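Input:
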Amino acid sequence: MPCAAAFKTSLMLSDGREQVSGFSMAGELLGLDGLASGAHASGAVALEDAEVCAIPYADLNQLASQNAGMQHVVSRLMSREIVREHTLMLLLGSMNADERLAAFLLNLSQRLKARGYSGTEFHLRMSRAEIGSYLGMKLETVSRTFSHFQDQRLLEVDKRHIRIVDMDGLTRAFEWRVH
Amino acid sequence: MPCAAAFKTSLMLSDGREQVSGFSMAGELLGLDGLASGAHASGAVALEDAEVCAIPYADLNQLASQNAGMQHVVSRLMSREIVREHTLMLLLGSMNADERLAAFLLNLSQRLKARGYSGTEFHLRMSRAEIGSYLGMKLETVSRTFSHFQDQRLLEVDKRHIRIVDMDGLTRAFEWRVH
DNA sequence: CGGAAGATTGAGCGTAGTCAAACCGAGTGG
DNA sequence: CCACTCGGTTTGACTACGCTCAATCTTCCG
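Output:
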């Protein structure tokens, strides 16, 4: 099955619980948060077999100092990461369960489409619990919301296999839009 | 009155609602998110009279490309912003109302103390609604939670004037879930 | 086969949201 | 000076959304 390599990045709490802070796909950069302190505040776990390309910070730094264009690229990537997290904050701060899951699926759909995969039919690489942690809700609520969308003929769901049958309806489920 | 200049940064939604994404104090840098797209995804509003020092992006870019140290400083600041937002995500994703407000007050206390102000008695420069937006709860809930803390002899609250009378108790309220 | 892990569904409950009323302080104008 | 408005805050009553606990089912695998 064709699939974009997937990682989850998460923040660990001292009692062992984790908060998933993002899911990344092929071509996306991880670990930018480590530049601040030298140590990474978050951890990344592959959700399936994946190829990774590690870039030591020292090398990156070296590269950037020699090349103004490269330095610009790094800035943009980090800045984009900040914007991405703003979206998640909006999601966690002011949306209900339906809107959260709709936003999650539409975002996933867009990113898959941009990479040449189907934007309407795909396989989730993460569990209900991980989705829930990411969206700030419990796994049972995630499951219920999937069923809810299925009842409304917005999706067809079979475990982790998802087919979006009414993209417009799903989009309407979260009509909020950042200016 | 001695006070650290305060800004709020927020994301606007098309229906007029806003999500506050942060409160900044003197010496903190704003607008890093603008580097990605050229346009800023968020807006900043002064909560009181303040002095600002604007740095055109072009200048910053110029400065960084000539000076490796400067470029490093910018990277670190942006990276720290990402870490800061991770904390907020944890807060929005996995804490209840009491824990959220406790975390907010303790954070504020620490930052004020670090700047030479009292860490136990201070004046809030933002409304209940703004605090609520930041913490992902309604203004009534913010107000109720303040009253709740007062009943527990953790705080003394008079409108926007706050005195922390039991710092340990407040810390415990915050770390209860996080351990 | 039996056990483990993930997903679904139901029942009941509790936290925080909604709606509404009252209060308070500051500013304005008759 | 007092009446009035206006924005912000507090509090109450009720509601509802999502959490908790629990049972069932499927899939996978030793």
